[in-house]
From TrEMBL:
This is GTPase Der. It comes from the Bacteria. NCBIfam families: GTPase_EngA (TIGR03594), small_GTP (TIGR00231). Residues 3-167, 203-378 form the EngA-type G domain. Pfam families: KH_dom-like (PF14714), MMR_HSR1 (PF01926). SUPFAM superfamilies: P-loop containing nucleoside triphosphate hydrolases. The lineage of its organism: Bacteria, Pseudomonadati, Pseudomonadota, Alphaproteobacteria, Rhodobacterales. Associates with the 50S ribosomal subunit.
């Protein structure tokens, strides 16, 4: 059995488009299979290294108006029953319609797990609708564009832990062939099956850096003796891009960009692959460890990937490797910190750790830094606290009054985590200068202790 995801939502939000993207060439139509109605299409989906079954409920389009409601309800209930996860899609350009609310109710009652997605989110046009989607009360909406392939990494991020937990459950629940259960016992087992797949989520880490920075050495070091002896490739499928293990007592999934690169035979292919893998790893990761070589730190390529990680909203740790062969460590550290502040001001406050992947020195500090930034990245601040804070900020430094009308910032709330994102309800948001937004973001960073973490802040007008 594989994890099953049903794409549900009203006609024309883009379900089939996403289905086709996930399934690619290997589209399997199952019309003629017994028990499956024509309204449901099923296919094998690929997303990064994830494989799952996807069900498309797009068959509603040919419904006549008066039959639509009933069919929609039946179809959605059916999909919810078949699937482990319902990916509930709205059209970000239309915003939340009454029909969407109806769907939300059906799913709340029937689905085991719902992922909310605001599709057609490419460009600016979808932003309002995406924010509106919060009002459905189904958690944080993903921003997707099925047509343009945007937001696929975020979808992956949400699905991966669910897939992991599902897999772990499947293994646990694998029937023991030596034990014969009575029918009652078998039923009892099924009854006890948890409907929640969210527990046991591994922390996703990408180790990125230039060739020879020491990525493989670092990964082998944290994997430990056991894995080293069998070789990092043991038990890993060919197209796997990640390794899963416990780092100390933290379950992690580490993206091994170096391992993949080393499999490439041809030199030029190798370079291309290593850049592409680095980028992909950043998108799939929660925490990005930028590994520098102490002898040649902050090279162009290092700066590019660190900047990308910040722009993608990932938590970043800078690890300076090969510290074992540095003399004059104190002066060197001072220089490093100075270069870091000058060359990567956007990551101000992110941890910079010196390590030796070879000797293992600094591994515990690296682990702690990773956990710390991950924790901040996931932080949620209460609306009450935010609004008290906003009042203080407004008082300390009132917003400007362009042409005599003072811009009013009325209400603030955190709309997302990973990384933290906030919305402020505001009159005349387009008149608010960039410098004022910066003042607020910097204030948030300092007052809520979120150094080195990308923070998103949106101003939204009140209608
Ligand atoms: P379904 O009825 O929910 O399966 O929707 P379809 O997948 O058939 O898409 C409906 C329409 O929306 C089609 O014209 C698609 O090309 C368009 N569409 C789908 N996804 C996107 C998207 O991400 N952005 C935009 N702008 N249009 C999209
Ligand atoms: P990758 O290309 O980033 O995966 O780098 P490797 O892990 O293959 O390491 C490149 C070279 O640097 C190898 O010769 C390693 O032995 C060496 N190396 C890696 N880490 C350290 C370290 O902490 N100290 C020293 N002295 N050498 C290291």
């Amino acid at each position: 059995m594989t994890l099953t995801v049903a794409i549900v939502g009203r006609p024309n939000v883009g379900k089939s488009t996403l289905f086709n993207r996930l399934v690619g060439q290997k589209l399997a139509l199952v019309d003629d299979q017994p028990g499956v109605t024509r309204d449901l299409r099923e296919g094998e989906a690929r997303l990064g290294d994830l494989r799952f079954t996807v069900i498309d409920t797009a068959g509603l389009e040919d419904a006549t108006d008066d039959s639509l409601q009933g069919r929609m309800r039946r179809l959605t209930e059916r999909a919810a029953e078949m699937a482990d996860i319902c990916l509930f899609m709205i059209d970000a350009r239309d915003g939340v319609l009454a029909t969407d609310e109806l769907f939300a109710d059906i799913l709340r009652k029937n689905a085991k797990h719902v992922i909310l997605a605001a599709n057609k989110s490419e460009g600016k046009a979808g932003e309002e609708g995406w924010l509106e989607a919060y009002s459905l009360g189904l958690g944080e909406p993903l921003r997707l564009s099925g047509e343009h392939g945007e937001g696929m990494e975020d979808l992956y991020q949400v699905l991966m832990p669910l897939a992991d937990a599902y897999e772990a459950k499947e293994q646990e629940e694998m029937p023991d062939v030596d034990v014969e259960l009575t029918d009652e016992e078998a039923d009892a087992e099924v009854e006890g099956k948890s409907r929640d797949f969210t527990t046991g989520r591994p922390l996703q880490i990408a180790v990125v850096g230039r060739p020879n920075a020491g990525k493989s050495t670092l990964i082998n070091q944290v994997l430990g003796e056991e894995r080293l002896l069998t070789g990092p490739e043991a038990g890993i499928t060919r197209d796997a891009i990640s390794l899963r293990f416990d780092w100390g007592d933290t379950p992690v999934r580490m993206f091994d960009t170096a391992g993949m690169r080393k499999k490439a035979k041809v030199q030029e292919k190798l370079e291309k692959l290593s850049v592409a893998d680095g980028l992909r790893a950043v998108k799939f990761a929660e925490v990005v460890v930028v590994l520098l070589d102490a002898a040649i730190p902050f090279e162009q390529q290092d700066l590019r990937i660190a900047d990308l990680a910040e722009r993608e909203g990932r938590a970043v740790v800078i690890a300076v490797n090969k510290w074992d062969i540095e003399d004059e460590k104190q002066q060197k550290l001072k220089d490093l910190k100075e270069s870091f502040a000058r060359l990567l001001p956007q990551l101000k406050g992110a941890p910079l750790i010196t390590i030796s992947a070879k000797t293992g020195r600094g591994m515990e500090r690296l682990r702690e830094a990773v956990l710390r930034v991950h924790d901040i990245w996931n932080r949620r601040i209460s609306t009450a606290k935010l609004n008290r804070w906003l009042m203080d900020m407004l008082e300390a430094h009132p917003p400007p009054a362009p042409s005599g009308r003072r811009i009013k910032l009325r209400y603030m709330t955190q709309v997302r985590t990973r990384p933290p994102g906030f919305v402020i309800m505001c009159s005349l948001p387009e008149k608010l200068p960039e410098s004022y937004t910066r003042y607020l973001v910097n204030g948030l960073r300092v007052d809520f202790d979120m150094p080195g973490i990308p923070i998103r802040l949106w101003m939204r007008s009140q209608d």
